[in-house]
Amino acid sequence: MMLTGSAPISPDVLKFLRICFCCPIIEGYGQTENCAAAFFTHPEDKEAGHCGAPIPCIEYMLKDIAEMSYYSTDKDEEGNPAPRGEICLRGGNCFVGYFKNPEETAKTVDSEGWIHTGDVGMRLPHNGGLQIIDRYKNIFKLA
């Protein structure tokens, strides 16, 4: 078994690696602020292009981003719910703040304990997995 994370892997590359190594390759999503684990694909999931379901100890929500037209009420082409928005995480594996850095903590964690990742995700209607589709915080860094 192998694990990939850090950034979304191309579905074509993932399929190629599964064939080459002849083993399950699990795709994951997370960040340092939540002990590097938030979502994982199931070892038997053969579909590529998503990072799976949330791990048992994490809550997540997709926060609307009006300026980018991402909403939790979005639907796919067939009219099925396909919520999109900034990925926010909360749970037992999440940090409480940066050491001696309340300014950065306030930028990352809101008053309800949600970590704002800056990544934009979409919940897939056919399997409930999360797909990373964009980055939210880059807009403000580049501007």
Give structural attributes:
143 residues, alpha+beta, Rossmann fold, four-stranded mixed beta sheet, 29% strand
Describe this structure in words.
With 143 residues, the protein is an alpha+beta fold. It has one domain (2-142): ANL, N-terminal domain (Rossmann fold, 3-Layer(aba) Sandwich). It is built from 3 helices and 8 strands; from the N terminus they run βαβββββαββα. It has helices at residues 11-21, 102-108, 137-142, and strands at residues 2-4, 25-29, 39-40, 53-54, 58-63, 84-91, 115-123, 130-135. The strands form 2 sheets. A 4-stranded mixed β-sheet has the order 1-2-3-4, covered by helices on one side. A 4-stranded antiparallel β-sheet has the order 5-6-7-8.
The average pLDDT score comes to 92
Low-confidence segments, given as residue ranges, are none
- End-to-end separation in angstroms reads 42 Å
**Class computed from helices, strands and strand pairing:** alpha+beta
Shape: globular
CATH architectural type: 3-Layer(aba) Sandwich
Which radius of gyration do the C-alpha atoms yield?
Answer: 16 Å
Say how many strands there are. 8
CATH topology call: Rossmann fold
CATH superfamily: ANL, N-terminal domain
The CATH class designation is: Alpha Beta
- Counted by DSSP, the helix tally is 3
Largest sheet: spatial strand order? 1-2-3-4
Share in β-strands: 25-35%
